[in-house]
Design brief:
Blueprint (H helix, E strand, L loop, with lengths): L1 E6 L22 E6 L5 E3 L7 E5 L20 E8 L2 E8 L3 H8 L34 E4 L2 E4 L8 E4 L5 E4 L16 E3 L4 E7 L5 E7 L5 E8 L10 E2 L3 E6 L2 E3 L1 H5 L5 E3 L5 E7 L8 E5 L3 E11 L2 E9 L14 H9 L7 E8 L5 E5 L5 E5 L11 E7 L6 E8 L5 E5 L4 E2 L4 E4 L9 E9 L4 E8 L7 E6 L10 E5 L10
Antiparallel strand pairs: 1-2, 2-6, 3-33, 4-5, 4-34, 5-6, 7-8, 8-9, 9-10, 11-12, 12-13, 13-14, 15-16, 16-19, 17-18, 19-20, 21-22, 22-23, 23-24, 25-26, 26-27, 27-28, 29-31, 30-31, 31-32, 32-33
The structure holds fe (ii) ion (FE2).
Length: about 500
């Protein structure tokens, strides 16, 4: 079966002069439901692949008000659900309040993007309260629902896990206003709890919270920071949550004048707050480290008195600066997103909970980002991280690298010229006893053919290339963050 669910009113002009709305980034205007009886499958879909891989993306619906940044676009989910060697694909736009307002205004943008908050005429969402909540960054399954987020704190959007239909702002969304939900939040599948933070431009500048396995808010406390910050991710272990206070944020003196300029304060240490899972501002323990910026963590875990936090460090987050003379806006965005410019690589921070000591270790020097581990490994000692490779000069995901942190070995698979992937996820086999006993999944777009596909690799043997490829009904928009939902977590947390 292959059916068109809806035709969308995309009003971005075909000839728009913006590289982030063309080619790989060109928005999708059709919603499909299609199963593998009517899609081309190259290879064999494994019988023991059971669950759903779902990825968010920025699918800008209307001509932007000004400079469009690729994180501004309306959220669209792409999902492929597997069972018994069969799969069904769906893509659905997330119908946010902002999207509905713009659609109701005849299909025009009503809010500026993240680079031009001063152009806002309407109160918006996010830490700046100036842009549309696009719900286009991350997507996570929790308590039988999909939850989508925005890059700089927005409302938690609830999507139906079976149909991907937008159900509106999550039940707990009102309780965490006005800062909302952060870009990235973590689920501990052993307890079914979801841990999150948020941040904003007013005191106390951060909050921390826990959603129970039943999907209800059970803990929400203020966390005091020295001023407004711009964190993107957080970590969890079995007992702790790790929050970030990093020296890459709006210049506070300019912010007092209403000017938002992201600045790297190279002499200001990074600070990491290790808080007991149900702790608060009194029980948080702060550690200092060398100045840096971090977008995404791989995993965190406890070992005796130590808490280890692994992730991708940016040693040069402000280089080249946005605002560099002589470069146009799109070139500046491209330079800024180029992981080779920021030299982003795997790194470990270790915090001693008794002595307060911080140790830092380079795990690997190659440029990688978007590190992932299997869901059931999150917060626990682990062996493998699956990271994304990038070719220099752009923001295109060119392959996947598997780190073996026990032996120091690695495996990789590169997608080929003009073939670009998404954040890969690990789908463990039911009953798996090893953390790579399963499959690695990604959506991939081939710009040679203007087509997209789902790639299934054996997570134990990434070098071998795909065991199966599923050709989708149409090319999909570039996107990054994704999650795997195990078949036995589709209708709720295992412990609920
Ligand atoms: Fe992210």
């Amino acid at each position: 079966m292959m059916e068109v669910h809806a035709h969308l009113n995309v009003t971005v002009p075909d000839d728009i002069d913006n590289p982030f709305l063309q080619g790989l980034f060109r928005p999708v205007g059709v919603e499909y439901t299609a199963d593998t009886d009517d899609m081309v499958v190259i290879g064999t879909i494994p019988d023991d692949l059971h669950g759903m891989y779902v990825r968010n993306s920025h699918n800008q619906m209307h001509a932007p008000m000004g400079v469009y940044h690729p994180f501004d676009g309306d959220g669209m989910l792409h999902a492929i659900r597997f069972e018994g060697g069969h799969a069904t694909y769906r893509n659905r736009l997330i119908r946010t309040v902002g999207y509905l307002a713009e659609a109701g205004a005849g299909g025009q943008s009503l809010w500026p993007g993240m680079l031009e908050p001063h152009k806002a005429n309407l109160r918006g969402w996010g830490a700046m309260k100036t842009m549309k909540d696009n719900a286009g960054v991350d997507v996570v399954a929790h308590a039988g629902k999909l939850v989508a987020s925005m890059s700089q704190c927005g409302e938690p959007y609830h999507l139906d896990i079976d149909t991907l239909a937008t159900k509106g702002v999550h039940d707990w969304g009102k309780a965490i206003e006005p800062f909302g939900l952060c870009s990235h939040f973590k689920v501990d599948t052993a307890t079914g709890e979801l841990m999150f933070f948020n941040f904003g431009e007013t005191y106390p500048y951060m909050h921390y919270g826990v959603i129970g396995a039943d999907g209800a808010l059970k803990h929400f406390v203020p966390i005091e920071l020295p001023g407004p910050r711009w964190p993107h991710d957080m970590g969890i272990t079995q007992r702790y949550t790790i929050l970030h206070d990093l020296p890459y944020h709006f210049d506070p003196e300019l912010l007092n004048k209403g000017i938002r300029k992201l600045t790297y304060f190279k002499d200001q240490p990074a600070r990491f707050g290790v808080v007991p899972r149900h702790g608060d501002n009194n029980s948080i323990k702060w550690f200092t480290a060398k100045p840096c910026f971090i977008l995404h963590l791989a995993n965190c875990y406890e070992q005796g008195d130590w808490v280890h936090m692994d992730g991708c460090i940016q040693k040069r987050p402000g280089k080249p600066e946005v605002g560099q003379q002589g470069a146009d806006a799109f070139e500046r965005i491209r330079h800024h997103l180029d992981k080779h410019n920021t030299h982003t690589h795997m790194y470990r921070w270790s915090f001693n909970m008794v002595t307060g000591e911080t140790r830092e270790t380079v795990l690997d020097d190659e440029v990688t980002e978007f590190p992932m581990v299997a869901n059931d490994i999150v917060g626990r000692p682990y062996r493998y991280s699956f990271n994304t490779l990038f070719k220099p000069g752009n923001w295109h995901m060119s392959g996947v690298k598997k780190f073996d942190l026990q032996t120091g070995g690695d495996q990789r698979y590169e997608y080929g010229d003009n073939r670009f992937g998404s954040e890969p996820c690990i789908a463990l086999r039911p009953g798996a006893t090893e953390e790579d006993d399963g499959y690695l999944l990604t959506f991939l777009t081939d710009m040679n053919e203007n087509k997209s596909e789902v790639l299934i690799l054996d997570a134990r043997d990434v070098n071998a290339g795909p065991v199966a490829r599923i050709i989708l009904p149409a090319r999909i928009t570039n996107g990054t963050h994704a999650c795997w939902v195990e078949g036995d977590r589709m209708q709720g947390e295992r412990v609920a």
